[in-house]
Specification:
This is DUF4468 domain-containing protein. The chain is of the alpha/beta class. The protein has one domain. About 40% of the residues lie in helices and about 30% in strands. The strands form two sheets. Strands 1, 2, 3, 4, 5, 6, 9 and 10 form an eight-stranded mixed sheet that branches. A hairpin with a 4-residue loop joins strand 7 and strand 8. Helix 3 runs parallel beside helix 4. It starts with a helix and ends with a helix.
Amino acid sequence: MKKLIIACLLLSGAAFAQDMDVVQGNFDFLKDQKEVNVIFDYSDFTMMKEKMPEAQYVQEHKADLDKKAKGNGNIWEKKWIAARENIWTPKFLEIANIVLTKEKKDLNFQEGLKTPYTLIVKTVWLFPGWDAGIMKQPAKVTTNLKFVDSNNKSNVLLEITSDEAPGDQWGSNFSNESRLGEGYAKTAKSMSKLIIKKMK
């Protein structure tokens, strides 16, 4: 029975595994850097298994919510738009910096900095998941992470793809926006760990 439980845990972990791959470049340019500017690009991403445009997802989800209670669609849309600045962006920055600090790596990621290099976090695909109490499906976040020359953003020094970072947490989480926030946190954690590993 114990072996069966362990096997199930391993399988569930594999099901929600995140792929993070270096597409091009290396980490050498970061060795003497203390700070990196960050830009978040939430334009033109797709959603759900159907890979529908975000606008289509918002329209359909609003309609579903309005069927349950008139006006709820507009209320949700405001929360959805605000999630970028209030949940997803801060989650990424917070966790990226916490992981680096814990490993005593003197590197910090923030928005609005004037630094030689900029990290562009481009959202590619989102799956908000769901939570029905006993049963749940984690959110998934796919991003493209590009480290570029701040003065010439076409000069890419390092590009990393992060595929389906899982957004989940202990207990129940009925907010699509919060679950996705956990996916951005997982992305940041994996990125920082990769930086630490490559710069040893």
